[in-house]
Design brief:
It is built from two helices and four strands; from the N terminus they run αββββα. It is of the alpha+beta class and 88 residues long. The protein has a two-stranded antiparallel sheet.
């Protein structure tokens, strides 16, 4: 695990419960109104190593073993565009 930020996604209570039970990252799709297991169609699963809760209890950070890329573009991380570099 590199500590790199891979992506940002939404969870609800059900997706969190499934994630904790299966140790596979499961998210809530706000656009499709459905649960989705990261990697279920691409094979690029995220296996949970740790789950960190913030001080307000309203945000999580998942430490994962990423299989393949996290981003749908094929990049390892969805955060692959550095605005400081782009604006120069």
């Amino acid at each position: 695990m590199s500590g790199k930020i891979l992506m940002l996604a939404w969870m609800n209570e059900e997706s969190l419960a499934i994630t904790l039970a299966t140790k596979k990252a499961t998210y809530w799709s706000r656009s499709r109104n459905e649960l989705w297991v990261k990697g279920s169609t691409s094979g690029h699963f995220q296996f949970i190593k740790d789950v960190w809760l913030d001080c307000d209890g309203d945000a999580l950070v998942l430490s994962v073993e990423q299989i393949g890329s996290a981003c749908h573009t094929g990049e390892l991380s969805c955060f692959h565009q550095n605005l400081l570099e782009i604006s120069e």
